[in-house]
Design goal:
Distance between the termini: 47 Å
Largest sheet: 13 strands, mixed
Helix content: 10-25%
Oligomer: single chain
Number of helices: 4
Radius of gyration: 19 Å
């Protein structure tokens, strides 16, 4: 297991896009220490910010966290990265595979554009978790994002594929959603599904609902039973939602209108 031990709070935001077990495997500790991760004229390197210990393995642990650590695991395609602490924005952006775990909280746009693998945030996530960055075609695009705390506003904005699990979320969850599945065991904020085209959003409760969502009863669908089995295999707490009746709403009828919102009845 290779480790990066944070020396202290970075002097600036640092970009860890290129720091993965695969990238570090071919380098010596001295070579890794020269990798540029700074975002200003200071020219910070990996060795300036971290104490480095490499063993050539597929596992990387970052000991110590900071809200200034951006794009952690963004280039991950295999292996695992574990951060013991908080991270900044764009956690796992575009990630293609592997396992990425954060024991603290994450900033905005976690898992944006991620196409594979599993991203777990044991604390809270900022706004637009699984959502699209400016001018991007899609947010989460095939990966699994697990948020064990609260997600901010616009959870899964323009999500196209994959699965998001969270304990609770802010306003506009599943906004502009293209497809995929979001399951929130607790409450959603106001206006869930704003601009939703397709996809499924399941929650314990919600705030103000848009008038462009229409109630369609309490159907017992094969899809929800299969989803419950999947969540049970994952050991997800959200499986408890499926023990009772789910009320279904269709929308957003102001757009394509093929999305669906299920709420505990």
């Amino acid at each position: 297991m290779s480790t990066l031990r944070l020396r202290g709070e970075p002097q600036e935001r640092v970009d860890l896009l290129s720091i993965t077990p695969l990238a570090l495997k071919a380098l010596t500790e001295a070579e890794a220490g020269k990798l540029a991760i700074g975002t200003s004229r200071r020219g910070l390197t990996l060795g300036d910010v971290f104490e480095i210990s490499l063993d050539g393995s597929d596992s990387l642990v970052i000991e110590g966290g900071s809200s200034r650590l951006d794009r952690v695991g963004a280039a991950l395609s295999e292996g695992s990265i574990r951060v013991e602490g908080d991270v900044g924005q764009r956690l796992g952006e575009g990630m293609a595979g592997g396992t990425l775990t954060v024991t603290g909280s994450a900033g905005p746009y976690a898992a944006t554009g991620a196409t594979g693998g599993t991203i777990t945030i044991e604390g809270d996530a900022g706004d637009y978790a699984g959502g699209a960055v400016y001018a991007a075609k899609a947010g989460l695009d095939g990966a699994t994002l697990v948020i064990k705390g609260r997600a901010g506003d616009h959870l899964g904005d323009r999500m196209r594929k994959g699965l998001i699990l969270a304990e609770s979320a802010g306003a506009f969850a599943a906004s502009r959603m293209i497809a995929g599945t979001i399951v929130v065991s607790g409450a959603l904020g106001d206006h869930p599904g704003y601009g939703m085209r397709r996809g499924t959003l399941i929650a314990g409760s919600h705030g103000a609902l848009l008038p462009t969502f229409v109630e369609t009863g309490t159907p017992d669908l094969v899809f929800t039973r299969l989803l419950a089995q999947t969540l049970k295999r994952l050991g997800a707490s959200q499986v408890s939602l499926f023990g009772g009746t789910l009320r279904r709403y269709s929308g957003d009828l102001a757009t394509l209108g093929k999305g669906e919102l299920f709420v505990s009845a």
